[in-house]
């Protein structure tokens, strides 16, 4: 499975949150390519990102998480492997097998998190992984 050219372009703009805050990535209908599904502009919130993760389909996501570390502003690019309980087992397997290659090909990602439910990737949980 390959990455669309748009995936690499979007990742270039994620670091630092200046143009994009997040992106979600889905598998194409022919299951041959990972594609950009949604893009959150720099003004987007973490709630917006969570809303773009479907409750019954797998996705990869990338979010430029902004927080304070001992009073100093910090940014961490978090890569998400989203595989909800209601998703197809076959598609979960595809996403699971290709996750290391996805992260490696993108060449970015300070923190990688897996989740089946939103509570597993609450802002608090993400912050704990970033610190």
Query: How much of the residues is beta strand, in percent?
Result: 35-45%
Distance between the termini: 33 Å
Task: Characterize the largest beta sheet: strand count, sense, and whether it forms a barrel.
Answer: 6 strands, mixed
The neighbouring-strand order within the major sheet is: 1-3-2-4-5-6
Give the helix proportion (percent range): 25-40%
Q: If you average the pLDDT, what whole number results?
A: 91
Radius of gyration: 14 Å
Given as residue ranges, the uncertain stretches (5+ residues, pLDDT < 50) are none
Query: What string, H for helix and E for strand, traces the elements in order?
Result: EHEEHEEHEH
**SSE-based structural type:** alpha/beta
What form results from the Cα inertia axes?
globular
Describe the fold and architecture:
The longest helix is centred in the last third of the chain and has 18 residues. The protein has 4 helices and 6 strands, in the order βαββαββαβα. The protein is of the alpha/beta class. A 6-stranded mixed beta sheet has the order 1-3-2-4-5-6, sandwiched between helices.
């Amino acid at each position: 499975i390959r990455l669309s050219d748009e995936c690499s372009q979007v990742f270039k703009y994620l670091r630092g949150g200046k143009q994009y805050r997040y992106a979600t990535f889905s598998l194409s209908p022919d299951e041959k390519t990972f594609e950009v599904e949604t893009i959150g502009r720099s003004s987007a919130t973490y709630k917006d990102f969570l809303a773009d993760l479907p409750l019954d389909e797998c996705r990869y996501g990338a979010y430029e998480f902004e927080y304070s570390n001992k009073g100093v502003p910090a940014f961490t690019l978090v890569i998400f492997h989203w595989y909800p309980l209601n998703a197809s087992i076959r598609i979960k397997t595809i996403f699971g097998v290709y996750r290391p290659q996805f992260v490696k090909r993108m060449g970015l990602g300070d923190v990688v998190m897996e989740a089946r439910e939103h509570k597993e990737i609450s802002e608090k949980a993400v912050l704990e992984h970033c610190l």
